[in-house]
Amino acid sequence: MMDASQGYHQIMLAPEDRKKVSFITSEGTFCYVAMPFGLKNAGATYQRLVDKIFHPQIGRNVEVYVDDMLVKSKKAADHVKDLEETFSVLRKYKLKLNPAKCAFGVQGGRFLGFMVTRRGIEANPLKIRAIIDMKVPTCLNEAQRLTGRIAALSRFISKSAKKSLPFFKTLRKAKTFEWGTPCQLAFEELKAYLARLPLLVKPSPGEALYLYLSLPPRLSAPYSFGKKTKNNYLYTT
């Protein structure tokens, strides 16, 4: 797992465009020579860069999102070669890493807010603990905070909209806050469910997959998983 050092600043600006990012100080007017943080298209520009330079590797032994990079290997013996291939690309395009935020040769770690391991993708324990340790909401702001935390874990929670419905009904009453029995029961059931969240895994080659459709009156939520283990939840669309 790797992190680029001052990612945006590694992209140099064209000389004719530097005046567009000038700024005034007490010492005079200055301009950036590298792409600064805060530009509207900075994120998209950096993403296009890494998508282009790592194109032959993405999906095979590299995953990259802006300045966060993950080098993955099916076998430990191949990991050094995969790292060498990645480092050669970084050297070619003169991109630098932040050593303090890099970890090499590990079997798991936090990536983009998720716990990525050789078994699959797990929910971030800190996000789970934030809900489990949460006290009963006493105002609209606290209820909104709860629904926001649920949204961050929604891909791990089967029928998350249904489980959260009592909370959203409470939020619809913008002028008053009522935490009734339905909300309390849903809150307790949610905490119990979070103690046994499923693991997101990729399907095994040749394994039969089953598509299940949830068809309430106003929405549909298809999802699939392997029959042999109900605790391995593939993905919800």
TrEMBL record:
According to the entry, every stretch annotated as the Reverse transcriptase domain falls at: 1-116
Superkingdom, natural source = Eukaryota
Q: Matching InterPro entries, A to Z?
A: DNA/RNA_pol_sf (IPR043502), Rev_trsase/Diguanyl_cyclase (IPR043128), RNA-dir_DNA_polymerase (IPR053134), RT_dom (IPR000477)
What protein is this chain from? Reverse transcriptase domain-containing protein
- CDD domains assigned to the protein according to its UniProt record, in alphabetical order: RT_LTR
Gene3D superfamilies found in the cross-reference section: 3.30.70.270, HIV Type 1 Reverse Transcriptase, subunit A, domain 1 (3.10.10.10)
Coiled-coil region list = none
- What organism does the record attribute this protein to? Sesamum latifolium
